[in-house]
Each structure stands twice: as C-alpha cells, then as structure tokens.
Sequence to fold (477 residues):
Amino acid sequence: MAETESFKILVIDDSPVNLGIIKKVLSQEGYSVFTAQSGPEGRLAAEKNQPDLILLDIMMPGEDGFEVLSSLKKNSATVGIPVIFLTGVSEIDSKVKGFSLGAVDYILKPFHPKEVLARVRIHLKLSVATNSLITAQAEKLKQIKKAQTELLISPDDFKEAKFGVSFNSLHEAGGDFYDVLSISEHIHGYCVADFSGHDISTSYLTASMKALLKQNCTPLYQPGESMKMINDILVEILPEGKYLTSVYARLNRTNKKLTIISSGHPPAVLARHDKPAELVNLNGDILGMFKDAIFGERTFSLNKKDRLFLYSDGLIEKNKSVWTNGLEQLPGLCEEFKDFPIKEAPEQIRSRLFETAGNFEDDVVIMGIEV
Amino acid sequence: MELKEYAENLGLDENDFKELTSLFIETTKSDLEKLKSAIETKDFTKAKEASHSIKGAAGNLGFMDIWEAASESEKASDNQDKNALKQYYYTILEKTEKLHGLTDNG
Fold:
C-alpha cells in the first residue's frame, strides 16, 4: 500500500447505529470506512474493496458473523484480511468459536469507540509489520535471482565461444551455475556446476565459483590443475554440508583438442557430426569436500561441427524414471538437433525432454558447444 | 445528562453524536413497533430480537438506562412474560422520546 493511501476498514453489522458510530470514530482518525448491513453484502464488499481490516458483528439475522468469517477465510481473495469480531458479553462461546475460525481479536459489546479504535490500530500495525516482512524477503530473493542471472553470460555477448544455453531457474536462489571463459584467443573454458541446496548461501557461492574460474582457468594451467586449485579453495570456504558437482571443458579451436574434467557430475554428451552421440562417463570426486580429490579427465581430438553438451543434474535426477529417461534420450536428442544452430539446440532439447519425461522439479541448465 | 456529555464520553464530536442519536431514535422506534406487535401476538422470539437490537445500539451510544430496560426486556422474552414486556416497552419508549427532546433542543 502506498503511504499516502489511507487504510481501508470494512464494518459488517446489521445495526445502522453501530455502523454509524464506528464509521464516525474511524473516519475522524483518517481511515476510509466501508459498511455493509448483512453477511452476504459484507463478503462481496470484502472481495471487491480488499480492506486492510474487517470489523464483523456476530449476531446478525440471516447469515451470521461466524458464517461470514468462515467464508472469508475460505476465499483466497479475502483469507489474508484480519478480522475482529464484535460480540455480546453473554455470548461466551462465541469468543472461542471466533478465534477458531480465524479471527485475530474480538471486541465486547457494548463497545466504547476508543476501544474499537485502539484494537483497529494494533491489528493494522501487526498486519503491516507482517506484510512488510514478507515483501522485504521476497524482494531480497528477487534481487538475488537478478544478480545471479546477471552473472550468467549470454551467447550473444560471447559469439566466438560458439555456444548455446538453456537456463531454467525454478528457484529464487537456484543452485545451478554455468560460465564460459576466454582463456586465450582460440581457447575457451566451459563450466556447468550444481550446488547442493537452493538457499541464499548458494547464490553467494555461485558468485564465488565464477571468480574462482576466472582466476584459475588460465593458459598457465592444464584443466585438471585448474580444477584442483579451485577444489582446494572451495574446501576452505564452503560451509559444512555444502558441496558441488561440476563439469569443466576446455576447447582449443586451433588444434581442436577438447579436455573434459568431471567432478561427480553426470556424463557429458559428445555429439560428433558424423558419428552417433555418446555419453562421456568420467565420475570423479565432488568439488569442495576433500583436499585430495581426484577428478575424471579425458581428452578428445575433434573435428569442425562436432558438439559437446553439458547439463546440470536437474535434467536427470529426482526420480529413477526421469533419470533413466533423461539419460537414455539425451544422446539421441543431441543428434536429432544437430542441424539446428548451436544457439538454439539446447532449448530444443530441453523442451523435448520436458514433453517426454515430465516436469523437472529442479533447476535445469543445458549448454551446447560447437567446435 | 446532556448530549454533549454523552459525546465527550465517547470521544465524539457533538454534532456527530447528535446525528447518531437521531439515527438511534429512528431505528429504535422501528424496533419498538416490532416489539409492540410481538407482545400483542405473543411472539417472544421476535420480542427478543427487537429487544436485542435496541440493547446493542443503546449500549454502544452510552444510553445505559435504555440498555438496561432492553436487557430486562430480552430476559422477559426468554421468560415469556407478557406483562413485564409491556412495562419495558413503555420504559424504552419514554426514554427514547426524552432523547428526541434533547436532539431537538440541542
């Protein structure tokens, strides 16, 4: 709600005098007050005007206050609006019933206008505090997602690396990460990593991973050496219970040599232009757990138009059937889309897998690289 | 008691209070008509409803003498005591008329 806008209070009471009193008292304090003289009228007004708070009389002819309260709490449009009910001193049971139906407070009748005002103020403050907490948290998460997305390089910004990517982050602070590095004019590094968990700390870690790749993947080091150094730092900085799997590929377009380093990551797909696509099973230890980690490594001599596909385990994890499905279908799909530009192929593969293997419950990255 | 005092007790402006009192008189007269016919037909449920309505409004405006009479009238409905109901009907009518005088003069 904008600060200049006044709070809206809906009063539902069959007594015109009570409506009049409450309206006068609240209006003179700057609230905008809507009134309804029956339950059904009140429910409609609540849905339409979206008040910040509702004052509801219990004893009304026709639909009584309990029925109204219960309907308000069942309607997604009104469930979050705090309700204070008005009840007579003799109606002892109604207090319990009112609370059990979801009211935040009650006011005994006959009421004093100042008491009404005081209770309205308290509950508006509580409601504002709660809502702003929720909004602030959601806002924070949005910023993180934005920052994470900004960390991710786009194929259009790095055309000489000849890659395409499909990145689908289902979580505000996702655990998936990819990066493309320029090691020298004709040598590029490609990395897909997957952190355990999707909480806030994960998003800071993806930023750290990006920095580590930049610092350690240089012409001075062989790919295996780079990953070993990154591992040693991650062992120091990762919180307990946090780890990541990653696959790192270094492609030299001058001699067409490709080296793949796997750290506990699912197999990459090598799709040569004139041969059936194959899974590159390399295993290797997970990153960030042990100082003396050993990674899977293999080097291939490739030809022009050959492709490599890296992906995150969101594509094949979660349940056995999807795992098998994804893994079985992946090489075939990489072949099937071999005539699609490399920029588009990952997205095509992803949408085809979605069609056949069902929805994925995790973040998904698919990266395609062409020699 | 003057209307001004009632208004001050409730923290309301005198004119606003006068307006509410007029509204009260209007609705109470209509409730009293219902109460009268309920007494005549011995419809004690209706008598109770009318008494309850008067009681609620009177209490919230601070008209405690009317509130008391209406509370008694509600009990008399529960007891199906026609004679007592007549008594309270007169009391409420009389006190409401008095209020009417206050709003006219004030």
About this structure: The interface with chain A takes residues 10-13, 16, 19-20, 23-24, 27, 49, 52-53, 56-62, 67 of chain B (CB under 8 Å). The helical segments of chain B are 3-10, 14-40, 44-61, 64-78, 82-105.
